[in-house]
Protein 1
Amino acid sequence: MTINTLAKGAWHREQMASFRKMEKVIVAMQDPDMGVKMRNQRLLITVIPHAMTGRDIIDWLIQKYNICEEEALHVGAMLVRYGYVYPLKEPRSLVLRPDESPYRFQVSQPPLHPPAIYLAKKNIRKQGELMEYEKERYSVLHKRINHTWDFVVMQAREQLRASKQRRKADRIVLECQEQAYWLINRPPVRPLLLYSVVLDYIETCRRALGRNRVKSSICLEGFVKYSEQYLNHDPIMQGCLPSNPWISDDTAHWTMNAEVVPSPTRLRVERWSFSFMELLNDSMGRREFMTYLEKEFSAENLCFWQACEDVRHGENSRIIEKVEDIYKNFLAPGAARWVNIDSKTMDKTLHGIRHPHRFVMDDAQMHIYFLMKKDSYPRYLKSDLYKNMLAKAVVPQETKKSVFPFMRRQRHASPSPAQAVAPEDGQAKGAGQAGTNSAAGSQA
Amino acid sequence: MCDQTFLAATFGPCDSCGKASPLMNIYIKNDAINYCSFCMEVMACQGLQSGETLASLKKESDSLKKKLEEERGKLNDIELHQVAEKVEMLGALSIKTKRLLKGHGNKVLCMDWCKDKRRLVSSSQDGKVIVWDAFTLNKEHGVTLPCTWVMACAYAPSGCAVACGGLDNKCSVFPLSLDKNENLSAKKKAVAMHTNYVSGCTFTNSDMQLLTSSGDGTCALWDVESGQLLQSFHGHTADVLSLDLAPSETGNTFVSGGSDKKANVWDMRSGQNIQSFESHESDINCVKYYPSGDAFASASDDSTCRFYDLRADREVAVYQKDSVIFGASTVDFSLSGRLLFAGYNDYTINVWDVLKGTRVSVLFGHENRVSRVRVSPDGTALCSASWDNTLRIWA
């Protein structure tokens, strides 16, 4: 749905799909064999034919769509709210009661297809003389709302008949208003824009035909593996230790998993082995990896990668100075932390540095990234450094659920990340720490 | 400025004849063309005269589309739910409302979590943007924007700023200050300028760049410090309603979904449309990447959510049910990607099993349509924003 349709108060295009679906439900409900049980309902002293009880509607929905009572009540409430079914008792209260209250199907349905009716009216009146785009719309609409077409034509005829009886002046005004309204709200059909759009589409298609695709069995297997691997890390599915802060009001889980902790949790350290990106995304993991690389005398690779990231995501105004720094420290012959890139990439990068832009280091950065990923990272995972970290890692004890559930813990505030900003430093990284801090104003 | 509306929007010298007149601004193959209406007609006629009629172009595009579908189908050797047969069924989930955030005076349209896992920012129809500590229910900052319908808001990765935009056609960045006397509105910085409403915004990997999507049919990448347009993305033929950044290691792509029923994947560096998916039957209201970055999900007015695999280049699952009648407006994945949370216009949130394609649970509670659902950064909770003026935290 776009805001434009809402703001103009125009016909709710987004709801067409929903109305169509609701109509399907209504049609199914009205089926003489499989639909809702219809009976004569007693209302005070009158007997109303072809009515149904609220309870019957609910039961039918439960059975037909295999849903629970709560959902059936919800769906039924929508049917009543949108006028497809109306209550015989207390007609102003549009609710669905799951009891003996009588309901009926709405015969003259709420105005659903204004443009269809307008076009049908015009068609009838001018005996088929519609403008080209109107003819197209007419047939498109006809196809779409085929099953209610008779109703639409009937409504059109009704409206025409009613309008004939109005005063001529009013009629003309009304017609003009209607025509103007639909003129404004018709979809734009400009041949030129269609031209550029179609050209664009053809190009996108051509490019798409040339791309490499992977077999479904391989891709889909990937999703299964990913979900399995991360299952224990998904708190909504498996819970988290010691407890989910939102449920227990205890922020221990966040304290234990803060950015910088003396001993990280086991799950966290395990996660570093899932992928190189997981290791780099965790600041503690990155620090550990750096320590390892220092032992291997290849720490300049990670430093270089970080500096390139800085160029890519930093301010426009500092790109030139940052690229110069990188050249001085990593790429210049005899540089203090010279990185080993293949000659082709090095040449291309050095050439690009003459006119530095945001992506000038991309190729070199990619080369170093994959070097670390294929070489240093697997060795890190097999190293003593990592294995010790894993062995030392903490597995928090699960907090037993409180015996007295109404004794709620105090919910402590945490220092806001905004606090850590130094105004001159545009790249300040907030601490983002959440922890108990009773001095900072707690709220029970 | 980014523009792809169908009406003349600027005035100036025509690129072709040089006369000053109302200009039509369109893009052909990523090149901007600003012609007066007369020169535009001439160009169209010339294009059509050179052997291509609009009809023949359309025929070509239709046949290409068919070929593309065939190519995609060739590697389709198995369906997702078949692969998922060996996976264990999910047990019953017990998800309840744990926090109710009251404070907005009007429909809440958007929200975003902070990286600290407990703070969030939300924006509403009356122009108010509030930063909450959702854990304690404290409201920490509040700004009132001069425009209504603030449809997009985002928290900066550092936690030190928020971006928001909407009907004012702009996206502004506010640094968050803890000085109570400071007027946040005064420090506002307008970064993005579109020619129609801003429907979505997100920071890229740092506070320095902002990605926006707009009702003018384009997406754009901006430098926050200078407000400069770094890259614009053209290809949608109607309003772009949503976007999401890819969590991939090379971090260069994002996906957008729009009223033209298409979901497009873009390369941020070149501005090119890399992949396009068109299988929804109505507007795509929201798009969100799968945690691994190899796929994404979309929510649409046709009451379905769909799952698209980027490596196989096709739709691999449709999440729908006959009893789900109303359009879906928002989706998000749980941390492992096994669950898909979708918010609907019938006030509910449906929880789907991504692999098996079945519905696991329904969350009732909101009293009006759900405009946004987002899982917290560490996956411990789900936040939903609704037109009933509240936000709910579920866990």
Protein 2
Amino acid sequence: MITFMNNSDSEEEPCNERTSLMSAESPSVPSYQDGLQASEAGEAQAHRKRRTGSSRSPNNIADGDMSDSGVPVRESTLENEEEELTLKYGAKHVIMLFVPVTLCMIVVVATIKSVRFYTEKNGQLIYTPFSEDTPSVGQRLLNSVLNTIIMISVIVVMTVFLVLLYKYRCYKFIHGWLILSSLMLLFLFTYIYLGEVLKTYNVAMDYPTLFLVIWNFGAVGMICIHWKGPLQLQQAYLIMISALMALVFIKYLPEWSAWVILGAISIYDLMAVLCPKGPLRMLVETAQERNEPIFPALIYSSAMMWTVGMAKPDTAARGPSQQTWDAAEDGRENHRSPSHGDSQMSETRSPVPTRPITSLEELEEEERGVKLGLGDFIFYSVLVGKAAATASGDWNTTLACFVAILIGLCLTLLLLAVFKKALPALPISITFGLVFYFSTDNLVRPFMDTLASHQLYI
Amino acid sequence: AFFWLVSLLLSSLIWFIAVKASNPQDEPLQKGLLIFGVMFSVLLQEAFRFLYYKLLRKAIEGLVALSEDGCSPISIQQMAYVAGVGFGLMSGAFSMINLLADALGPGIVGIHGDSQLYFLTSAFMTMVLIFLHTFWGILFFHGCEHRRWWEIMAVVVMHLAVSGSTFCNPLYVGSLVPSYLLMAAAAAWAYLLSGGSAQNLWRFLLCKS
């Protein structure tokens, strides 16, 4: 979903997996994460939308107070400018999301192609108990479908659990869970990843150095993601943990199950975000009622200092909207909190009506950004990584999937600009990606290979 | 790039069906099918270029309608250039990337009697194709804009000619030389269409203001 993706679950799952036995039999929460992500995304989007709605009314009131004659003019120019800015910066948003998604995919593909570890089969997750080593095709298909059903049901259960936790205000539990998950991801998975990379390139590293490196990496990551830090560093960390998670998925999901799960997840995402009774929708609405920002460390934010908003615990956790509107500084922080598109304009104008227009627009320009859930990153990278791993060593398939996913992302962002509400980011991209993967692998590859062998060009 | 990819997909689908439906042992038939596949693919690529032009036209109309001063932030010429580059990059990437990946590994070029210049000529051919796609993009869009059908036909014929010349491979003089000549011609033509002239070029080279 565009906005949030809950990463904590997935992090927790692998954690359990590792602690139990290296046979990787523990349940992972990726599905959960997916659901969470979807819910987060939906929640965040709806939240943002409500924010927009609520911010518009105080804005209009503020405008009215200032000068009655100026109000209608201001409002109409406001709308025009908003539309134009939305379109103009629509392209900018797309680029702002292309770069991190591309980076994540590049990291995953590079690792898959070079480090053998992630393409070896060393057991399966407990969420996919049925093995795919069966002799017949029908049995294999049945097993993969059963695996998918189990995975998706785990996701649904986890999502509902999260919604309940959120509804009954168990914030400490959720925050603790998130911190535990990211801790596990940042330390344990990084350690394993680093170990495998060093093994592949036959580089020796002693334990004290390793400890120092991992400790620094993990500690800075925790601070950046959950507290304050430079935006680019936070983005880099989020990309890295998404890539690590995707690599875990690629390694531990059996072949056919992975493809069926990708398809099922995008359908689930679509339903959970858009259906009125979906858990994600409920989560979003609850968050909107309380006017709260969603959990940290689960979304990729392209332009805001999200952590600044989180630094004030009362505004972040439970602050009613009045608090954020009163003080100019609070208004500024509220402005900096996640919002999408034209909500920015109204929000900034409302608390500080005397500020000159140009500086407001500048503020908006630099703080306007897009949010994409981390689960989206993860599943895009899983698709491209699987394409790189299993497409008979063909780079064309990987490239085709990459282009397909980016185009899907483009279309989703376009729809977001049109509909201005929470949208699932998975369906379109994953559909394109799957279509292109299977068609390129089976149709285009023989064609291109034959052309290349005769050195013909089209 | 996406549109080129889709055209490639459709053309390989057609070729694949044709191959599966025919006798795999029959060599000349396979070669004939391949040639047919190549020509069909070229025609499909140009058709998709046209579709892309239509899409961009609609987008420009939308942008113009929404902008304040009635002109869109990006002109159709810029879009033509970008479309051409996209097509070229995708076509080049698909042609070259497997070759590059194989070039990293061990092996001897042309050990079975094929040409030893395989990698070099592939690189040059890919480069010329990428340039050509860029220029064809400009020419094609210009022709569509001003309703000059002969320009569009010229682009299609040039593309067919370049693809056809690659049938002479490994007789590289038959494919590389005509392609480069065509590229020079297309470059000059696109330059003139984009508003350049010999005077501009001269001034640019002499670094006059």
Protein 3
Amino acid sequence: MAMRAAILRHIRLPARAQTLAGPRSREWSLPGSSASRSMSSHGDDHLTKEEVVERVLAVVKSFPKVDPATVSPDVHFQNDLGLDSLDNVEIVMALEEEFKLEIPDLEADKIDSCRLAIEYIYNHPMAG
Amino acid sequence: MSATAAATTTAGYLARRAAQKEKVRILYRRALKDTLNWAVHRHLFYQDASELRERFESNKHVEDLDTVDRLIADAEASYNKWRHPDPYIVPWAPGGSKFTRNPTPPSGIEIIYDYGREDND
């Protein structure tokens, strides 16, 4: 077993030496290791908090009844922006469409401010 | 009249009002989603959504609890009548196409990746 590994290492060494002049600028790890999946897009699905904040604010600012200058991450839809409860429902629906989420009705009823929306979306495992 | 005035701010009245408001919000949400299901093209959806909003706004200032209850019941009946047979549901949500497609395997089961290597290899 150890001899096999030694033989393999010896056999594969010339291939590695030849790539010094090649266009590859990165050393491959030990042959046989599958730790680096360089072309896989697995796991980059988690949104960063800044992204979530940015997108939520963009959605709220593009709402026609809202003045974009007053929108900040801590704003409350009904108290600060002077919106209606039905407008609240519309904003939550727009957020659902933006992040491709399906929020249950009772949860969606409770989302009242930007802060709550950001928290909910950031902690949702399926936010896209 | 004074009896009704005294009854306007009791806890029971407020509780009923709050329950009605929640029902209205949930109904508006479902009706809006349904409108989106029926009117797929965005400009049609915006028109239908505006009309829906008008219908909700026209009954906004009704004060009498029983009238409001009746209006909500009628609205829910008409919502049930107009529900789309094939609504758009986000794939991973219950009712969507990807729901429980790849459930997580039960814990304690481990797959050994040896790629067919045999013992005399």
Protein 4
Amino acid sequence: MTVAAGIGYALVALGPSLSLFISVISKKPFLILTLLSSTLVWLISLIILSGIWRAFLPLNSTTWWPFAILIFTSVAFQEGLRLLFWKVYKILEDILDAFADRVSKPRLYLTDKMQIALAGGLGHGVAHAVFFCLSLLTPAFGPATYFVDRCSQIPFFLVSAIIALAFATVHTFSMVIAFNGYAEGNKVDQVFVPSVHLAAGMMTLINFAYGGCVIGIPLLFLMAILTLLHCGRMVWRRLTENQRQGNS
Amino acid sequence: MAIRIFFLILLFNFRFRSSLSGQTNSMESVPDLQKSMYMAVDGYPCVRLANLSGEIGCSNPGRDKVVAPIIKYKNNIELAQPSAILLSMDDVQGFFSRISNDSSFARNVGGVLVESGIEIQHKLKGFSPAQKFPQAEFAPYLNKTYEWNPIGSGIMWKSYNFPVFLLSESSTSALQEIAMKNEKAEKAYTTNVAEFDVVMQTTKVGTHDSESCLTEETCLPLGGYSVWSAVPPINNSSSNQSKPIILTVASMDAASFFRDKSLGADSPISGVISLLAAVDALSHVDGLDELNKQLVFLVFTGESWGYLGSRRFLLELDQQSYAVHGLNSTVIQLVMEIGSTGKGLNQGNKNFFAHTKVSSGANEAFDALKLAQESLKSEGVTVSNASSSNPGIPPSSLMAFLRKNSSTSGIVLEDFDTVFANKFYHSHLDDSANINSSSIVAAASLVARTLYVLASDKKDLTSSALRAINVNASLVEELINCMLKCNPGLSCELVSSYIASINTCPSHYVGVVLGEPSSTPSPNQVDDVSRFVWNFLADRTSTPKSTTSVCSEDCGKNGGLCIRAELDGKGVCVISTTRYVPAYSTRLKFDSGTWKVLPPNSSDPMGMLDPVWTESNWNTIGLRVYTIQDAAYDRLVLLGGITVTVFAYLAIVLTRAYITKALKQD
């Protein structure tokens, strides 16, 4: 592989996130701040998890259930952190609304709140992609390529870039769904986000089998598309509801 | 829908539980990943050497590494692009002749990997990259076309503009697998390539002969340090050095196509082992002081590259330098050379041949050999005169002595008569499997007893005294294990009791002269084998002292030497005459930090014929193997990434426009 391939892999993993950043997030400084803080929160969660799991490493790679437990506890921890993130956001929202009232400016619109959620989700997704794909990409800029035994059809770097893309999508849009779910008290949305995260995580275990990545990766993308569609439907519903409320 | 997903997951659970097997190599960091992508191959390179008129050997054609796909060589193979050829030993001959004949084929050779293995060695009848008459230009007779080495192909004396590596045994099987994978070409867009890094400084700077490269300091001259030792030690205080000298000579350097795999078991290390064993046998004899003649043992290096050791020794004798203090060239009565002695075993008998130029001194020596043979009759040792159809003596250090002074009496003891018995002369396959230790023991016994006969008065000679001189066969075995095998190699007990060796696997390539040549070199200027020979000879030829003292400053004052100095402890002070003699071309002079080539001088006829060999400097030499993707695939990935990014951007812009439009409508 060469510099061209290296850049290609980086773009596959982070290109859509970059596009989202340029078109939506970069316009508003508050969203950039939200993105950065959510990236930091996600990385801190990883540090804490790795600190706890350090005692059990290295895991025996011939059996899959230690990895299942690892994924389960990590997802549970991160979902708990998401709830915390929501609580902090709520406090912040109240502060911003109070400030808006004081200076006689309008309060946060629904679209603003959704954009903040989007920025939070994007922060999670970018952190995942950087940590799990970009950090491994340095050898991809050299002349050699690499194939893992258990996934010998696709180069390793391409597999990791594609998986990072799927997860970035899942993280970005599930934050929007989650914030909406907590705000409305919608139980379906509240359960949907952790289950999709857990399912996506568990699906990566399919890659353990020989040739499993050919099945696992399309399934992962199915999860990502599912998240995207659900988010789209929810956003459309909320906005049209809001519109009707505003008019009536 | 949820139930369907649930069943799908359950199905896959069962599938992959059964297919989980095999260990993945555990990688814990990105550097681990990098390491597993590139497989480092251990091999022995062929490097670039230069002489006064040109170059020989191999190197990368420029400053960059050579990257080429690995292909197994078959007869009449056609190459479409520069490739790394995997060659088996049977095909080496055919390959190199094709290189010299077919230039379009040679253009597509990016690099060569030569296989090695025990089975290959047994199958091969003979292989010698040397010439048919090695160093014929130095012969003291007219017939320079006589074929002493008829198997010789001469391939190591040509110049190649591609790198050549000899693979180790483990690497051979790995690379054979990889070549097969390339042939099957399962994935159309990947190839397994070998990356050669044999960039030589002479190629980078453009100095393609010895004189220019020595001036530009891109190369160093070949050479080392010869060792001589006197039995008994020469007393400095006695001014009259009238005892005639009998010189026993052997050489300790070998050559091969691959610089670091020059073992030279039969030619010439078997001779050195015989010499060391003979010294050991004689050291147990009483009354060496009362002998009529002075025995001097001399081990040269650099003989394969223009008789550097012997020529330099003769020059230093003329100049009466410190290195040869105590020796007077006018009293040298006889030069007895021990050539290759490892292949004399023939159906239980050990047969040797004495090659000589007819003279009275030689006749006397031959008579002494016959006497020694008589005493060894029970062991089946025979020595005969070499055939008179030979044009003269075989390639040996004696040629240098005879060219200097044609009246020198000399005799060369070899295990062959008309042609070399060694079918692997100057190749990496001349290893311990090519020799027989009992043949070396027989030669050592012959030499030790002959020297005793020659050195003592006829009337004092008793057959019982002769039979008391016995060579230690286990010492010979140990020397073979130390000097000709990798295990235990130079870390064996015998060697490590004298020196702290740098390498374990012995290599007898002469190497280059490091720093300024001097008669008292520092240990890091002298290679392991020379240091071992010096220490061994000093130890065995030392006069036994009642007390062995630890080395101190006054050790050197009374003719003492400090041996075992590199080990823990200060070393042991012994009384012995053992010295290093620099071995390098008589056409070179080390002057204020650089080497200068002296003009040819008619008083040095051999110097006029000397090619003046030098070896190029280099930064690193390496060989790696890895998988690459086609450039088209790389570009496809880049295009894919850009497409995904642009597509996402458009989708977001469209969505945003749609939402704002739809909200505004309502």
